Structure formats: structure tokens, C-alpha cells
């Protein structure tokens, strides 16, 4: 009474690779179609929008730059103290240039007062220049009045 064993291989047929190949081809077609649709501007707008922006650039606003005298400030106590050489320019609306130029002595005074009041350890911080620039700009705007000075551009910041 020996039972003959049938091989299990016959029971489990290998599946066809046809659905896998069809899925792969359809996936590639969909990816290619999606790329073309986004590249040509069918999905997110026309591709000609960039060309229109480049053809007509916006005119620059009427601004001028007023140079501020260099400020040299001693930092720290005694002989071991360091020196800061600070040079900047003010971005001013074109019609206000003469008004801001007449206020330069007050602007330099405000800059000297602020820079001398700083602690020597504050210059070691990597964000010190950004913080000083913001503080100086706000103080200069208070001295000159609103809407006269747009920005403070630091052209030289040397710490010896």
C-alpha cells in the first residue's frame, strides 16, 4: 500500500511574467507623460511665463547710496583691547539724498555711541554683525526720520 507521491512542483505553477511586464511598461509611459506635461506647462501653467518675465524687467527704484565716514572704535579695556574699523553706506530714496547727507554728523555720532557701548564678548558671536547692522539701521532711521534711509550696507568690518 504504498502511495505514490506526486511532485509538488506540478501543483504550484509558475506565474506568467506577462502582467509584470505590462505593469512596468505602463508605469514608464505614465512617468514619461507626467514629465512631459509638467515640462511643457500643461499642468502648472504655460512654459512661456518665464520668457515674458525676462523680456520686460522691472525698472530699478530711484535710490542712491550715501557713504558714511569710517568709524574706528576701541573694544575692550587697556592695552589688550582690540579695534574695530567700521565703514558703511546708507541706501536712501533718491529725492532724500541731500537731507540724509546733511544729517551725517548725527549718524556718525549714533554709530560711535552704539559701537562703543558693545561688550568685547559680543563680537565673538557669529551673528554679531547681523544684530549690529539691525540695531544701527534702526537708530539711524530714528535720527533721520521715517522713510529716508532704507538700508545700511556694511562695506568694511575689520576687527584687530
Task: Explain what the structure shows.
Controls the rotational direction of flagella during chemotaxis. Pfam families: FliL. Keywords: Cell inner membrane, Cell membrane, Cell projection, Chemotaxis, Cilium, Flagellar rotation, Flagellum, Membrane, Transmembrane, Transmembrane helix. This is Flagellar protein FliL. The protein is α+β, with helices and mostly antiparallel strands and 160 residues long. It folds into 2 domains: 16-55; 63-159, GTP Cyclohydrolase I, domain 2 (2-Layer Sandwich), CATH 3.30.1130. The protein has helices spanning 8-11, 18-40, 49-55, 97-102, 104-117, 128-144, and strands at residues 63-75, 82-93, 149-159. A 3-stranded antiparallel sheet has the order 1-2-3. β1 (63-75) and β2 form a beta hairpin. The chain is elongated and about 105 Å long. The mean pLDDT is 85.
Features:
160 residues; alpha+beta; GTP Cyclohydrolase I, domain 2; 2 domains; 3 strands
SSE order and pairing:
Blueprint: H1 8-11, H2 18-40, H3 49-55, E1 63-75, E2 82-93, H4 97-102, H5 104-117, H6 128-144, E3 149-159
Antiparallel strand pairs: 1-2, 2-3
Function: Controls the rotational direction of flagella during chemotaxis.
Keywords: Cell inner membrane, Cell membrane, Cell projection, Chemotaxis, Cilium, Flagellar rotation, Flagellum, Membrane, Transmembrane, Transmembrane helix
Membrane topology: Single-pass membrane protein
Amino acid at each position: 500500500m504504498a502511495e505514490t507521491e506526486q511532485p509538488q512542483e506540478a501543483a504550484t505553477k509558475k506565474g506568467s511574467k506577462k502582467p509584470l511586464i505590462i505593469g512596468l511598461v505602463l508605469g514608464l509611459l505614465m512617468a514619461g507623460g507626467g514629465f512631459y506635461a509638467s515640462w511643457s506647462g500643461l499642468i502648472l501653467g504655460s512654459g512661456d511665463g518665464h520668457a515674458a518675465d525676462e523680456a520686460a524687467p522691472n525698472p530699478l527704484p530711484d535710490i542712491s547710496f550715501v557713504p558714511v565716514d569710517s568709524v574706528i572704535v576701541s573694544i575692550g579695556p587697556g592695552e589688550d583691547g582690540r579695534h574695530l574699523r567700521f565703514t558703511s553706506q546708507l541706501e536712501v530714496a533718491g529725492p532724500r539724498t541731500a537731507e540724509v547727507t546733511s544729517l551725517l554728523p548725527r549718524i556718525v555720532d549714533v554709530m560711535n555711541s552704539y559701537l562703543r557701548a558693545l561688550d568685547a564678548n559680543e563680537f565673538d558671536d557669529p551673528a554679531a554683525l547681523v544684530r549690529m547692522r539691525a540695531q544701527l539701521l534702526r537708530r539711524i532711521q530714528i535720527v533721520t526720520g521715517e522713510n529716508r534711509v532704507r538700508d545700511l550696507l556694511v562695506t568694511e568690518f575689520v576687527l584687530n
